[in-house]
Specification:
With 144 residues, the protein is α+β, with helices and mostly antiparallel strands. It has one domain. It is 25% helix and 31% strand. The chain has four helices and eight strands; from the N terminus they run ββααβααβββββ.
Length: 144
């Protein structure tokens, strides 16, 4: 099987090489060209399976978030031992949300970007949980 496997502490993400290559090649401006080149080379060299680990390829975690958000791939939760399709996963916000421009309807004042705080440094990101609620992947996607 032509697959790319990404292991995290709590999950094993599995994608077809075609899904990964399409995601890396199309939005060239979204990713670091050097990282994309290295990942494409690694994926092309591998035989039927290419296994990536966060310690060596932490950048690929951002690609995983994008592929999962498009409903592609599967993930095996190491905690509950079940395999889920990407569209079954639950997305959640990390820190101050997925974007510094996100509006939080529960917070007065509209945009968080304009909120006065003692520490103007903020961060945010997103992650995914399995349907049972186990955290599978969490990535910081922005920082001010």
């Amino acid at each position: 099987m032509n697959t790319v496997i990404f292991n995290t502490e709590n999950a094993v993400f599995t994608f077809t090489k075609k899904e990964v290559k399409e995601r890396l090649i199309v939005p060239e401006s979204e990713y670091n060209p050097d990282e994309v080149s290295q990942l494409l080379k690694l994926i092309s060299i591998g035989g039927d399976e290419t296994i990536l680990y966060p310690d060596d390829h932490s950048y690929f975690g951002y690609v995983v978030l994008d592929i999962i958000s498009e409903g592609m791939g599967t993930v095996t939760c190491k905690i509950c031992g079940k395999t889920y399709d990407a569209d079954q996963l639950k997305e959640f916000a990390v820190g101050h949300g997925k974007s510094p421009l996100d509006i939080n309807p529960e917070q007065k004042g509209g945009f968080r970007l304009f909120k006065k705080t003692k520490n103007p440094s903020m961060f945010g990101g997103k992650g995914y949980k399995c349907p049972v609620g186990h955290e599978l992947i969490v990535m910081e996607t922005w920082r001010t």
